[in-house]
Structure formats: C-alpha cells, structure tokens
Specification:
heterodimer, A: 112 residues, mainly beta, seven-stranded mixed sheet, four-stranded antiparallel sheet, globular, B: 113 residues, 12 strands
Chain lengths: 112, 113
C-alpha cells in the first residue's frame, strides 16, 4: 500500500519564476493538505483540498494556489517566487472527517 | 488563534536516560493533540494522538504523553531512550472539525550511544 508520494524531491528555481509541486495521497484517502516547513520551524498549513475544492486556507498569499484532481491527487502552485519561499513543502493526506494525517517526504524548494 | 509552544529546541541525552519533552498549546475549546516524529531522512510520522478519554496516551516505540487540560499541556515521555530515538519531535494541535493542524517549532533530540 503506497503512502503519500510527492514529486519532485528537490527543486531549484529563480526569483520570479513559477513552480508546481505534486502529491499523490495514500490509497483510500480523499483529502489533501499542503504545509510549508521553513528551516528550524514546524510545518505551517497552506490549504486543504477535498472534492476538488479548496476547503480551508492558512495565512498564505494568493501566489499560493492549488488543485485537486478527480483521482484525489493534488498540485501546489507558487507564482512569482521569492527567496523566502525556500522551504520543505509537505503534502498530507487523510480521509474526510478523520483528523489523522499521513505525510509525504516533501519537496525541498530552493529559490535563488 | 491556536498556537503550540515546545519548550526545548535541542535536547541531548545519553542512552537509557529518561525523556520528557514539554508542549503547551493555546486554544480555548476542545482540541485534538498529536506528537509527530521525523527521523533523519524520513517523513513525518504520527507517534501518538489524543482525542478524548484517558488523558494518558500510549504511542509507538514506548512513548507516552499526558494531557493536562488545566495546564494546556501535552508532554511527551519515554522512560529509557535509545540511540534510534534520535529525531525531531513535533507537538501539534487541531480543533475538531477544523482542517488545519497547528505545529510547534519542533525539538531536535540527539541520543548519545
């Protein structure tokens, strides 16, 4: 049973560019959440998708957007990258109504 | 707003020592509480969780945590640590029916062999 998978594992982008990160949830899960983990910090909630809609959003600007597909997989898009967007981006999946979340290994984004 | 505070950023212990990692949260209502662990090079894993009932919760690998509502605390304990417990530990909270999990900044635990 595959867990949560994320791609790519590492990414280097230039300021001002756009990036797309991908996540496949654990088998049987229908809800995907995205978190940003800056160096030395705990993960911070970006947003959550369920039934292909954004259900809740954390304190992140509109440059951060997402999408969920019919197969429950999800993308995180970040536009106009800033140096401060450099972080580990974590995807977590869960079953709607069940709080326990399973995390992927993350995508390490470096903005130069 | 909810927040989580972890008292120690970095803890160094010898094998067989006892462990207690402090966690306090700020939230006025009912909460779900978690401890996650991130071993070097691995993904975040759930160590244990508290939703309701017995405030003493047992998790994997001999870890336990005690929810003390009056102190807004959920400290993690292990009577005798092993070298393999070297990892980063995150305390987290979420309100029932809320989608987001709020994490503390984490505690890096280093066990000396």
């Amino acid at each position: 049973d595959a867990g949560v998978t994320q791609s790519p594992t590492h990414l280097i982008k230039t300021r001002g560019q756009q990036v797309t990160l991908r996540c496949s949830p654990k088998s049987g899960h229908d809800t995907v959440s995205w978190y940003q983990q800056a160096l030395g910090q705990g993960p911070q909630f970006i947003f959550q998708y369920y039934e292909e809609e954004e259900r809740q959003r954390g304190n992140f600007p509109d440059r951060f957007s997402g999408h969920q597909f019919p197969n429950y997989s999800s993308e995180l898009n970040v536009n106009a990258l800033l140096l401060g967007d450099s972080a580990l981006y974590l995807c977590a999946s869960s079953l709607r109504g069940i709080t326990e979340a399973f995390f992927g290994q993350g995508t390490r984004l470096t903005v130069v | 707003a909810q927040s989580v505070s972890q008292h120690n950023h970095h803890v160094i212990l010898s094998e067989a020592a006892s462990l207690e990692l402090g966690c306090n949260y700020s939230y006025g209502g009912t909460v779900n509480l978690f401890w996650y662990v991130q071993y070097p090079g691995q993904h975040l894993q759930l160590l244990l969780k508290y939703f309701s009932g017995d405030p003493l919760v047992k998790g994997i690998k001999g870890f336990e945590a005690e929810f003390i509502k009056s102190k807004f605390s959920f400290n993690l304990r292990k009577p005798s640590v092993q070298w393999s417990d070297t990892a980063e530990y995150f305390c987290a909270v979420n309100a029932p029916r809320d989608d987001k999990i709020i994490f503390g900044k984490g505690t890096r635990l280093h066990i000396l062999p």
